[in-house]
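[step 3/7] fold_predict: job queued, chain A
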Amino acid sequence: MDEEKDLAQRKKEAAERAKQLARERLAAKQAAEQAKSAAGQGGAPDSDLKTPSDSSTRPVKEESGAAQPASPADLEAAKKRAAEEARAKAAELRRQREAAASGGAAGDDLEAAKKKAAEEARAKAAELRRQREAAASGGAAGDDLEAAKKKAAEEARAKAAELRRQREAAASGGAAGDDLEAAKKKAAEEDLELAKKKAAAAAKAKAAALAKQKAAEAAGSDDELAKQKAAAAAKAKAAAAAKARAAAMAKQQGDAADDDAAKQKAAASAKAKAAAAARAKAKAAGADGGTEQPSSPSPNDPLLQKYVRVIQEHLGPDVLEDAYINRLAKDVPTLVVNKEAYYKVAEFLKYNEQLWFDYLSELHGTDFQTHMEVYVHLYSYPNRQPVALKVKIERDNPEIDSLVPLWPGANWPECEAYDLLGIRFRGHPNLIRIFLGEQWVGHPLRKDYEPYDAEV
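[step 4/7] structure written:
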């Protein structure tokens, strides 16, 4: 802030001096014009003024020419020089302060330099004032002004050289300390950079080692898992072979008691089946001679007809394999769709304006030995209507599209069907076994499931 104030003050003083010089030159010009006009009117005085020799009159002409005011370019150049001198002095003072802060120059030297600069500025201002007074009185010629300018420039150069010598002297006194400090800083920075590089290299090496260790552990865990599965499979095969041998031995021995028990069980089973069939026929038969009566219509028949009509109008008649009322599930309208049209029909049920089945309440799979089925129960809250969607898939390769993109609530039920039945759902975001774990062998809800642990 002090430097900025000094610079502003010097600029202001330079401007004032330039203005004062311009006013003085203007006054000198006006005085010269008045003298010239007075000489033209008198006649004789003019001749008296011209009587001296040419050599004596030439300085007068030169003085009158010197009294002409400076051009705007000269005035502007004077302002620029004054501003540059002020900036140079401010920069010099700033460098002196920095040198004093770094230990090269003491506060007393800086204060003395300030005082010296102030005294020189006052002396220069007094000199300029004297020059202006001499010019106003008509005694300062252009040569004197030019000489004053040259002298001021030489003084400024001498002052700059002096200040430069002082800086060099101050720098020579504190150069060693500054150089040492700079060297220390540079060495510290280089050491820090080297330490960073070493740390980065060590971190990369550790990361590589950790990755190798993880890969080795993963390979070891995979090998261990494969060994466990192989051992479990071997146990299961051994148990099955033991069962087969036991059965063969039982047949070869021809144990009569076992044969009788088997015959009795078979007879009891046949009787039970016959009784169940008879009860079913009796229940289905009417009172008029035992003829079978048609079942009563379901209250959801109109809904089923509506679903079938809308689906066939928009998707065609080939997408549905069957449609019926499920009497065992609260008369829910049930649609059996083709495997290829499963996702398309489900999407239509959700987004069609007449249906709007926006909620999935149930999804599970069933193994029928000949095939598998996926059963989906949907509900429309806007229409307060239910529907069931069924699809049949191959048992050897049970795979069907996932409904998670349509109803996120299908996520865990599909994982459950995959875990217990082995049904794979295409497009599922994270199909995992949620009950038994990935290391479990087989799917317990399959009809042909045999545990690998014979004791289970």
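[step 5/7] annotate
The first strand starts at residue 320 and ends at 326.
Residues 164 and 336 are 102 Å apart (CA to CA).
exit 0
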